[in-house]
Design goal:
The protein has about 400 residues and is α+β, with helices and mostly antiparallel strands. It contains 7 helices and 20 strands. The strands form 4 sheets. An 8-stranded mixed sheet has the order 6-7-5-15-16-17-14-18. It has a 6-stranded mixed sheet with strand order 9-2-1-13-20-19, with helices on one face. The protein has a 3-stranded antiparallel sheet with strand order 3-8-4.
């Protein structure tokens, strides 16, 4: 979707950023009949191509984040229809796997914490089934004998974010969106209203509406009054992609989320035999270095749950920077500057929130207002920083 800008073309909307959130906004807006241009450059630490792709509001439920989980359930439940429509528009597979998620506990203390969270899931109406260790191993035979028990979440699934990105890219292009490989240096204003964007290459692209969806790079875009774009902190995640030997069954058939002596870990299988293993959650600024300690931590805990991971080939090591807002909730829709919208701050939930965010942003771009289900996350809301270490202030929060 990379193309030259026609001098005679003036898009209705410029979307800044080509991650999942930027591309779903572009595709959904184009389907509504808007002329869309996406401007993006390859950014180190981009979260979308690194993400594991878990669609797991039930097994991520955390006290204090009930509103986020309700939004997550709404978005998760839209995935089947969303994927069908996306694959029809793009002609590409989106990598959706509706196989459920198994959440397991390594020891008795871990199981007690999961049981405590099950009370929250029941209150939110999220389906889970408590299982003994033996029942967990019946579902996933490669689990270690030490696993004490867990919960099956039949409605928590997964998607391959890299395939999802490719499908969104193609679908947006087929719906008429134009892509420009460049960096937006600043938003251009005419008085107090958006007039377009100025590119790092020196050009200017006129548009009546601009959506900032550049992840952790969003606050660095200039030209705006102070406070219009809240700060977004980068939260580092290190993970590995492992390869199953040809002809051998994968070590897990479905997503397995585990708690090992209080430390969370996950294994997400792909249809091609890849296993995504992760992930750290580190408040280290814009540091994108892979570290021995971070990868060891992930491998250590995964080995405790599924010893067979130690025999798999390491296909890739990855680092991503999740964009965390001051209150760890997304920033969506119109801002105080007429014509300027935000689609940012999705933190750990960018993949899960993709369908609901795309629909909400398309509504805002065509009507000027967010739909009711997304208004809690309005970009103009009052923001207060949460406590803790970037996990909503809840020590039981999962990465």
């Amino acid at each position: 979707m990379c193309a030259a800008i026609s001098a005679s073309r003036s898009p209705d909307v410029v979307v800044v950023g080509a991650g999942l959130i930027g591309l779903v906004t572009a595709w959904r807006a184009a389907r509504r009949g808007l002329a869309v241009t996406v401007v993006a450059e390859t950014a180190e630490g981009a979260a979308s191509p690194v993400a594991a792709g878990m669609l797991t509001p039930a097994t991520e439920a955390a006290f204090g984040e009930e509103a986020l989980m309700r939004f997550g359930v709404l978005s998760r439940d839209r995935y089947p229809a969303f994927v069908a429509e996306l694959e029809d528009d793009s002609g590409l597979p989106a990598g959706y796997r509706p196989h459920g998620t198994l959440q397991v506990a390594f020891d008795a203390d871990d199981l007690a914490r999961l049981a405590h969270l099950s009370e929250l899931r029941a209150r939110l109406g999220l389906r889970t089934e408590r299982l003994t260790g033996r029942e967990c191993r019946r579902l996933e035979p490669m689990l270690a004998p030490a696993v004490r028990g867990g919960y099956l979440a039949p409605d928590d699934h997964s998607v391959d974010p890299r395939r999802l990105l490719s499908a969104l890219y193609a679908a947006a292009e087929r719906r008429g969106a134009v892509g420009v490989r460049d960096r937006v240096r600043e938003v251009v204003l005419d008085g107090d209203r958006v007039r377009g964007v100025r590119l790092a290459s020196g050009g200017e692209l006129a548009a009546g509406q601009v959506v900032l969806a550049a992840g952790v790079g969003t606050p660095a875009i200039g030209g705006l009054p102070p406070g219009v774009v809240p700060p977004l902190r980068p939260v580092k995640g290190q993970l590995l992609r492992l390869r199953t030997p040809p002809g051998e069954p994968p070590v897990v058939e479905r997503t397995v989320r585990g708690l090992v002596r209080g430390s969370p870990v996950y294994l997400v299988p792909r249809d091609d035999g890849e296993i995504v293993l992760g992930a750290t959650q580190e408040e280290q600024g814009h540091d994108t270095r892979l570290t021995a300690g971070g990868l060891w931590e992930v491998l250590r805990d995964a080995h405790e749950l599924v010893p067979g991971v130690s025999e798999l080939e390491v296909a890739e090591t990855c680092v991503g920077l999740r964009p965390g807002s001051p209150d760890n909730e997304p920033l969506l829709g119109p801002t105080a500057v007429p014509g300027l919208h935000l689609a940012a701050g999705h933190f750990r939930h960018g993949v899960l929130f993709t369908p609901a965010t795309g629909d909400a942003m398309a509504e805002a771009l065509t009507t000027g207002a967010l739909p009711g289900y997304a208004r809690r996350f309005a970009a103009t809301r009052a923001l207060e920083a949460v406590g803790g270490t970037g996990t909503g202030g809840d020590p039981d929060q999962w990465t």
